[in-house]
Design a protein that fits this description.
The chain has about 260 residues and is an alpha+beta fold. Helices cover about 20% and strands about 35% of the residues. It folds into 2 domains: about 110 residues, no CATH class; about 140 residues, no CATH class.
Length: about 260
Amino acid sequence: MIRALYTAATGMEAQQLNMDVTANNLANVSTTGFKKSRVDFQDLLYQTVRTAGSSQAQGVVVPTGIQVGLGTRLGATQKIFTQGDYKETDNPLDVMIEGDGFFQVMLPNGETAYTRDGAFKRDANGKIVNSDGYAIQPEMTIPSDAKDVTIGEDGTISVTLAGQTGSQELGQLQLVKFVNPAGLSSLGGNLYAQTESSGDPITGTPGEDGLGSLTQGVIEMSNVQVVDEMVNMIEAQRAYEVNSKSIQAADDMLSVANQLRR
């Protein structure tokens, strides 16, 4: 059987996965804090017909060998944590991280998740939560009679209460960073979870120790560039077509062999 049939089939499967990742990037072009993914491929094992450096005769060494590749496979899908575009909202609880870092939120099971989505709200008890109601960590509660909320670049949250002229400090937001943020596990809902590959979270004050500073009234949009994804989509489509042509060519060769007459 001609190897090209199976080799080209792996190429078609790889481009299907490539298209899946590209489609997900495009679907999240307007998702707050979304980070695009990139597909990394690897070549498969090689069938060695003749080993390079083997002896052909006494004193004669083969300069190059003969190896036939057997296709490709998906090596990894990697998150690209470049800065997304800015969007002003004038909402006092919208916060953007300008630089490296993640916000921390508490999941219902007691575990901590991490996010770049700074579109925060207040729940019925005044706690600052994300869009799914998960409380930000460290937990902050805004009094019901607070008129103005100010979030500084260093994460300090201050409020002005009704009937008072001075501001009152509630606390300070903390950010975390990871040695390998690409190793985080995506949970959906703009959330990430720590893994062994990401390393342990390093907690710090915004604007210090390599962490980004905070900007109030602004949110970070997706870092997906539509033009780049459209180009990737065209490349994937053309590569899929070329691999299908390889299968057709191999099938035609087999057909010719089957029709040989003695």
